[in-house]
């Protein structure tokens, strides 16, 4: 399933039994409206039959979901027949076309990664150019990659998604895993310098109402995205996306208690997609809904909150 390779001119059709394009696809979920940039994902039902895929400008990873299915494909001028099991992944670099045939209907979690996104990550890993490449891989079985893929799939299927920063973080880690270039921090500082941490925190505070990306935060302090992610977590004790969501929730809490704006406007002013998105995260982190918070009035101080000054103190101390 999903094995793709250039088809040499003049070669006979490698899979003659099914008719060309006899298979069909039905998209169940798509990240098109989730605000992800430079990458995306979809959950697709694929029928039995032959599937021919043209070359695309972006890299593709197809992860098999569910019951095993026998698949046949042509790869590097060699015929392959295999059983695709749950979690098996095919990696198809940009510019390759090809075909595969499934003997039964199946489901694929398909991730696409733009060349710019992949190249930006690769350039930040301090690897030799020959090693820093996405290569075709078929029936890849990597538990650590599967963990990242299933986390991204859960984000795709969630009724209330996390901040796009979380998906970006997962996709960055997937690229790192695919090229085998997990960054090492030997000979590098283990935490952000106090002034550097303060700059990042102040930038986040000033832009909570906007879409924040790992790329711009890392560029702010002149670090690669992989290194920035590690150093931020070591400094503040949590991943970037988690910190941003907590700050948005606390900002929303403050504005709700002030009572000057309606909940819908507050959601937009604190960077949430909509009011129910804000309510979801307030319930998850504070244990109350916006309406319950407003009703609590004078007792709101008893509700759990995240103190930005305390977080800043942690950054400075470390």
Structural descriptors:
disordered C terminus, six-stranded antiparallel beta sheet, Jelly Rolls, 10 strands, single chain, alpha+beta, about 40% helix, disordered N terminus, about 325 residues, 2 domains, about 20% strand, Arc Repressor Mutant, subunit A, four-stranded antiparallel beta sheet
How would you characterize this protein structure?
This protein is an alpha+beta fold and 318 residues long. It has 2 domains: 25-178, Jelly Rolls, CATH 2.60.120; 184-318, Homeodomain-like (Arc Repressor Mutant, subunit A, Orthogonal Bundle). The protein has helices at 115-123, 143-157, 164-178, 194-206, 214-220, 225-236, 240-258, 263-269, 275-286, 290-296, 308-317; strands at 25-30, 39-46, 49-53, 59-65, 69-75, 78-84, 89-92, 98-102, 106-113, 137-140. A hairpin with an 8-residue loop joins strand 1 (25-30) and strand 2 (39-46). Helix 8 crosses helix 9. The longest helix is centred in the C-terminal third of the chain and has 19 residues, at 240-258.
């Amino acid at each position: 399933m999903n094995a793709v390779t250039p088809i040499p001119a003049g070669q006979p059709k490698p899979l003659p039994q099914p008719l060309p394009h006899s298979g069909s696809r039905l998209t169940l979920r798509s990240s098109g409206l989730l605000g992800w940039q430079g990458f995306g994902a979809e959950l697709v039902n694929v029928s039995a039959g032959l599937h021919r895929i043209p070359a695309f400008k972006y890299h593709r990873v197809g992860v098999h979901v569910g019951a095993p299915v026998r698949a046949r494909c042509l790869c590097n001028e060699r015929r392959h027949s295999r059983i695709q099991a749950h979690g098996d992944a095919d990696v198809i670099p940009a510019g390759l076309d090809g075909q595969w045939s499934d003997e039964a209907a199946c489901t694929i979690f398909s991730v696409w990664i733009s060349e710019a996104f992949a190249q930006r990550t690769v350039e930040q890993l301090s690897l030799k150019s020959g090693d820093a490449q996405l290569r075709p891989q078929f029936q890849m079985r990597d538990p650590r990659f599967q963990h990242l893929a299933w986390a991204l799939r859960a984000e795709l299927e969630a009724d209330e998604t996390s901040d796009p920063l979380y998906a970006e973080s997962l996709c960055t880690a997937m690229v790192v895993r695919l090229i085998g270039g997990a960054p090492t921090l030997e000979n590098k500082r283990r935490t952000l310098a106090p002034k550097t941490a303060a700059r990042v925190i102040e930038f986040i505070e000033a832009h909570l109402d906007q879409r924040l990306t790992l790329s711009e935060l890392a560029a702010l302090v002149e670090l690669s995205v992989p290194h920035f992610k590690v150093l931020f977590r070591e400094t503040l004790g949590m991943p970037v996306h988690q910190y941003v969501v907590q700050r948005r929730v606390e900002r929303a809490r403050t504005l709700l208690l002030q009572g000057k704006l309606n909940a819908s406007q507050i959601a937009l002013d604190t960077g949430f997609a909509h009011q129910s998105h804000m309510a979801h995260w307030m319930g998850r982190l504070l244990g109350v809904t916006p309406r319950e918070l407003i009703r609590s009035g004078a007792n709101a101080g008893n509700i759990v909150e995240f103190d930005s000054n305390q977080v800043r103190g942690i950054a400075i101390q470390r």
